[in-house]
Amino acid sequence: MQLLKNLFNIPYFKSPEVQAMKVETSFGKISSLLLAVVVCFLLVEPTFGIPVEEDLTITYKEKVALEKFRQLVLEHLKDDYMKQDIYLIRWLRAANLDLKLAEQKLLDNLKWREENDIDNLLSEDFSDFERDYPYTTDTYDKTGRPMIAFTFGDWDLRKAVLAGQARRFTRYLDRAFENVTTQIRAKQARGENVTQSQFLINLENFNLAQQGCIQCLPAIFTYFQHQVYYPNLADNIVLVNTPTVFEVVLRILRPIMAPETRVALKVFGTNRQQWQQFLYSIIDKDQLSRDFGGTRSSYR
Ligand SMILES: *[C@@H]1O[C@H](CO)[C@@H](O)[C@H](O)[C@H]1NC(C)=O
Ligand SMILES: *[C@@H]1O[C@H](CO)[C@@H](O)[C@H](O)[C@H]1NC(C)=O
């Protein structure tokens, strides 16, 4: 598997068959990178190293499937970003290149967006929730991936649920997904190599009454379930200070998680040294709040 050495040096491939596979329409830098197809004819199983490279390169087999997929779904794609290879390939990969399944997943997603007015989610006012259930979306890992970070144990989820706010609560969490995916697209438009985000969840103070209550579980469930609408968004989902009781919640959640979510999930216990070592390897300290061992002031 040959990877692009310099992703922004597009005329990297000289061979005529690669040139021939270039699609006429150019959808901007990142997707034209995708078009610089890495040819894998001779390889049985392409193996990829770094996730961002996996996102920015495409095998011949994927390229063929992608063009069929584009024809299949084109009429449903209303936003320009949806027509880009980098967007479409994720649905295909999430479906193991099964065109029908990928179409189904994508259409389900569009239906969900339409029915829930997701396009306007970022302009909704959630100031009350921001105070009670703070999360951050304005810090970045060492490679510039935006991060969603929060200390779940500080959230009185039960309160929101009992106040009939469960649905609004999951919307508020969906807003974080929208925030980072919007940021990622903006970064790509600026020529940055960013395709994913990081999720940091601190479970210190987690207790069954406030966050693990039976009525709370559907909200947590929905949170993980909605990851299907953002395929392969998470580079890592890092849980730190995970108490033993949360293992029960995880056991319930695992079967509904998308395979790539399961892969991204890194569950750390209360050994601070262990999880800090991992976080420091991917994130600078000034991008971490104190709850995560960093130097940024915490929001609590
Ligand atoms: C993008 O990623 C590639 C491969 O990881 C790297 O070689 C290149 O320098 C990166 N480009 C930018 C602008 O960061
Ligand atoms: C994402 O969230 C950050 C921090 O709350 C905010 O400053 C930024 O404007 C948001 N970006 C988008 C695209 O909503």
From TrEMBL:
One GO term of the cellular component aspect?
Answer: cytoplasm
UniProt xrefs under Gene3D superfamilies: CRAL-TRIO lipid binding domain (3.40.525.10)
Q: Boundaries of each CRAL-TRIO domain copy? A: 125-300
Q: Which domain of life is it from?
A: Eukaryota
Q: Which InterPro entries match?
A: CRAL-TRIO_dom (IPR001251), CRAL-TRIO_dom_sf (IPR036865), CRAL/TRIO_N_dom_sf (IPR036273), SEC14/CRAL-TRIO_domain (IPR051064)
PROSITE patterns per the UniProt record, alphabetical: CRAL_TRIO
Q: Where is the signal peptide?
A: none
Q: Which PANTHER family match?
A: SEC14 RELATED PROTEIN, SEC14-LIKE PROTEIN 2
Could you identify this protein by its name?
SEC14-like protein 2
